[in-house]
Amino acid sequence: MSQIILPAYPLITIDPFMSIWSSSETLYGKDTQIWHGQRKSIQGAVYLDHIYSLCFMGKPDKGDEIIPQISVDVTPLVTTYTFENEILRLTVKFWTPLIIDDIYKLSLPVSYIDYEIEILDGKEHTVEVCITIGKEFCFDRKNGKLTYGAKHLGDTSVVFMGNKNQKPLNSSGDGVCANWGYVYLTGDKDSYSHGKFGIHSECETQKGTFIFAYDDIKSIEYFGTQYPCLWKEKFDNIFKVIEYARDNHDILFQDVKRIENMLLADSEKFGEDYQNILIASYRQVLAGHKIFRDKNGDILYFSKECHSNGCINTVDVSYPALPLFLLYNPELVKGMMTGIFEFARMPAWSFDFAPHDIGQYPIANGQVYGHKNSPLFPKRKVYLEKKCHQRFRSQMPIEECGNMLSMAYLHYHYTGDTSVIDKNFDLLEKWAKYLVDAGVILNNQLCTDDFAGHSERNINLAIKSVMGIAFFHKICESLNKPDDYMHIAKDYAEKLYAFVLEDGTLPFSVGNEDSWSLKYNLIWDKVMNFNLFPDTLYKAESKKYAEKLDKYGVPLDYRSTLTKTDWMLWAAVLDETGENIKFFSKSLVSYLAQTKDIYPFSDWIDTKEPFRHGFAHRTVQGGLWMPVLADKNN
What we know:
Blueprint: E1 9-15, E2 18-22, E3 33-34, E4 42-48, E5 52-57, E6 65-66, E7 69-74, E8 78-84, E9 88-95, H1 103-106, E10 110-119, E11 127-133, E12 146-153, E13 156-163, E14 182-187, E15 189-192, E16 199-203, E17 207-215, E18 220-222, E19 225-227, H2 238-247, H3 249-267, H4 272-279, H5 282-287, E20 289-293, E21 299-303, H6 315-318, H7 322-328, H8 331-344, E22 363-364, H9 397-415, H10 419-423, H11 425-438, H12 459-478, H13 485-497, H14 523-527, H15 535-548, E23 562-564, H16 565-572, H17 579-594, E24 604-606, H18 626-633
Parallel strand pairs: 5-6, 18-22
Antiparallel strand pairs: 1-2, 2-3, 4-5, 4-11, 7-8, 8-9, 9-10, 10-17, 11-16, 12-13, 13-14, 14-17, 15-16, 18-19, 20-21, 23-24
Helix pairs in contact: 4-17, 8-9, 9-11, 9-12, 11-12, 12-13, 16-17
């Protein structure tokens, strides 16, 4: 497999507040940063014979030497750098045990930095490796007072630091960092500097491991209660986690390789370019979530809308990420839905359709972008037992009803567990009736592509509504409840297909015959074999997409050259030949290699120029697994 070139390379990928990347071609070209661009400095150096200091990570200080980087290799869970001069070769691996099919390992707040040194000149040398972490890890932009210290765990030293004024979950927002919690670093020796406020760990062997850990104390505030991350069910404290990580390094790395082999084997048939866009996505998708258990004993798995608006547990962010999670751990889909169902039952939610989200990460106390007279805006205090004044124009009525109906049935389809659809049947029925009442000529409203503004008579959105109605029929069927919803879905599909154009495609909106768009919402008709639309529509639409392919992808619709990478791959699956998957993937690999942006894989890009348009590190890239899901489902 050829090496993929990325705009940013994943290093430490734990959660939305601790996702650290390198944004330069070389690991020492710039300071390392959190995903949204704030400096979070990790510096690495090799000390040779107690004389020479060779920088390999982080921007070197003036006059410092570097050891030249000769390669960087990225796999789904491991980033490997190789450095070399005439004396030695240094290999450094960054990996996080994001084991998607094990919720406790997935919740571990640790990342590894493995290194290995090979002497090349045949002489004896004393070699030390040092990692330093800057004090900005403890703050959001503005530095404050630090607390720091060290602890010994047998032969392992642990150094740590944190904000002296600890107020867990005291703020929320987009493009922000936590200013609470503690960071930890392990090695064979330790030291910390009062002047530099850094953390140092030195190792004298030619092969070793540093463990980076982050204890955020509390992870999510959920309807007024603050919850810790799931790992705290298994470990008494962060030092027990570090001991576990140290003692189980090899076992966890075997798990990492198992996941990697599974991901690559499942995607191999779609080609190298397709595999590369999955490699670019896996860690950012999982590091964009947080997992915890609520007071009812339910596992919740909440995303952050990274560089979108910072919302937490957003339905139309969970929905496009479905393919990855349905494939490898559908129970996490249940964890995405639980909070939405709970909020929809509260007096604070005043609509007959599904909510868009439940707050702003990491505060899930109800929507904060509603009407300014709402008691939820902008205060943190929870007012969930009284009606609030959310603005209708900020909602996505058809979008989120269709999404929740789809997610609820698909969770059952892939697990056989009826608990979600049974417990929440009343809400699902209400949302299905909302779709039925809306018909196929939709009023002016937002869909998931809200950055493009409101749209009227949107056909792709109407297709989602049809799919939601069909999914509700499957829900009724699964619970042995009589219904007539599939007949309604077929009737609505026929009414929509009546607007087909001469070239066999459907326009962007009813009555706009000079328009076109990606009909990514058709995907479930194909994957679930609903047979609501004829195969001729798939063929005509797929042909249109191939014709509209630009250098970096296919636009979402006729209105601009902007696209969404996840929806591109959903639409690509409509092509029975598989050619669109290959060509669309190639265009995205070109974007990744040629963009000058310094952020992780954006899902909102220009198809003619290699630029992102605001989004970065979003979990929706889980949708890039749709070709694999469709293939396995069939």
